[in-house]
Design goal:
The chain is built from twelve helices and eleven strands. It has 291 residues and is of the alpha/beta class.
Length: 291
């Protein structure tokens, strides 16, 4: 009897234990929460590539995205200047406006320090240097320059009554030119001019002021500017061109490798062929280069 009772009690205990094992929640349900990977929504954000910056864009796309071409210039009549009525104008000013219209962007003219023009361009503070800039091998190595579009020369300007024989006759005299300009390079390379005392100025117009005031003996600057600003009826009626040196050509500069150069060159070719550039050159009494 006792044996049967013992067996019955043991069976009840085992039954209760089995029920407890089958009904209790498995602790493993907490483990997946502890080991679960980060939510999938966070992973793409961590792995997404950085947005392409401006350096990865071709120049024409960069300019179109901005909707404007930033053009670096200095005050340089008849290329870029403000007329007596307060209008910003000039050959390059009008030509830039026309070309930008054909490109589908607005021109944004920014006055720059000519001596740092290459830095301004490479830093993307400007998109082009369009200001009667002489084409030289050094500039072509640093920037993308268009084909020539205007003819020019470096000239020596002095007071009309000053004596001048040749560049050697200026040895020991004070000679001014715009810093970083073709005039400065001419002074450095000419045997006579290099014997003078060179004084660098910030603008070509400042050079004219120095000579007119008598604080400099001669200036070396662009023929185009000299023709527009000196002589009878001008603010510099007491000045005259004494000599013409180094025939040269103007070009427009863009960043190295820029596709804008070829696009602008193609537009200039079109304007040259349809006579628009010739009409503009005659307005400002300039001579076009052959294209």
């Amino acid at each position: 009897m006792k044996t049967k009772v013992f067996i019955l009690i043991l069976a009840i205990i085992m039954g209760l234990s089995f029920a407890a094992c089958t009904s209790a929640p498995a602790p493993a349900a907490q483990e997946p929460a502890a080991e679960a990977p980060a939510p999938a929504a966070q992973e793409p954000a961590a792995e997404a590539p950085a947005p392409a910056d401006d350096e990865q864009e071709i120049d024409s796309d960069y300019v179109l995205r901005k909707g404007a071409m930033i053009v670096g210039y200095t005050v340089f009549a008849p290329m870029n200047y403000t007329d007596d009525d307060g209008n910003f104008t000039g050959f390059d000013t009008e030509l830039t406006i026309k070309v930008c219209e054909m490109l589908g962007v607005a021109p944004d003219f920014v006055e720059i320090d000519w001596s740092t023009k290459e830095i301004e361009l490479s830093a993307k503070n400007i998109d082009a240097i369009w200001n009667g800039m002489t084409i030289t091998p050094e500039r072509q190595a640093e920037m993308y320059m268009t084909k020539p579009y205007l003819q020019n020369a470096q000239v020596i300007v002095m007071k009309a009554d000053a004596e001048y024989v040749n560049t050697e006759s200026l040895a020991g005299m004070a000679i001014v030119a715009e810093m970083g300009s073709a005039g400065e390079k001419t002074i450095e390379e000419d045997p006579g001019l290099s014997q003078g005392t060179y004084i660098a100025k910030d603008k070509q117009t400042s050079c004219l002021m120095e000579v007119a005031a008598g604080t400099a003996d001669a200036a070396v600057l662009d023929l185009t500017l000299a023709m527009a600003m000196i002589g009878e009826g001008s603010d510099y009626a007491n000045l005259a061109i004494k000599d013409s040196l180094n025939p040269e050509y103007y070009g427009i500069a863009f960043r190295q490798g820029s596709d804008l150069r070829d696009k602008v060159d193609a537009i200039l070719d079109e304007l040259y062929q349809n006579g628009s550039m010739q009409e503009l050159a005659e307005k400002y009494e300039l001579v076009l280069a052959s294209r």
